[in-house]
Amino acid sequence: MYYNIIMENKVLKTFKMMKFRHDADIDNGCAVAVGGFDGVHIGHRAMIVSLVNEAKRHSVPSVVFTFDAEDSPKSESSLLATDAKKNLLLASLGVDIVISVPFSEIRSMQAGDFVQSVFVDLLKAKSIVCGYDFRFGNNREGDVSFIKSLLSESGVTFITPNAVVLDGVPISSTLIRAHIANGDFEKANALLGYSFSFSGEVIHGRRLGRELGFPTINQKYPEHLAMPRFGVYAVKCSVDGKIYGGVANVGVKPTVGQEDMPLCETYLFDYSGDCYSSIAETEFVAFIREEKRFSSLDELKEQVLQDISVAKNLLKEF
Known about the structure:
By secondary structure, the chain is of the alpha+beta class. It has nine helices and 17 strands.
């Protein structure tokens, strides 16, 4: 549902509100966490734990104020999750409400106007949770100290959890994107706290897999999502409510002709049926090998058999 942020009788910005607890109401205030939360990785989860605890302490709803995925500051560098996936993850952590805005609509706001219109007028915030390095407003002029200075006499509680560190390195969406780009899903998934995935319609392909004896499902890889290294992966795929192991090729199929855009072509173990036009979710588990060109279809078939064997062994470990 779309709403408006109102300040001094002037419509400033529009926003979307998603309620996960039907009786949650911000009219009497809330505890709010603010940020992009791309991927809702284990570093973000520390903030959400603090948010939910603060909401309980003040007996108010827990609210995440964030940005529309495809219009977020991170969209140009590829996203870790769609808005739908982000909302599901936040709801699973106990968040009552998610409010999202197009970043392009607020990027030029003065920091003081943002604090007044969002934290004071809209949310009536009792507690604010944000990252230690959070910046906002025109030219990123606002930071945590700025918010505190404006609301110093309001009684608002401020929580700024330290960065979550693994092996001496702070966990960040940027680091996770780098692991995905390298095809290192063991590391990426460990930092996310779940398996990186995408959902997409099953579309018709060239039916070459069926001719080779390995019928596959084809999906267009989402435009705004972080792109893994082209190659072959062990995957898990949810189709029609059931999860199958499989082996997937992400890329442009160099042996059988260049595609206009990257595809994910997956052979599902122990699956038979027709799922065209269904929505399937593909989870990446582990990298097997780079995408490459083969001199013949027989050579390709032999490689596919090897890939299937490797994938089955890898999936036993996860």
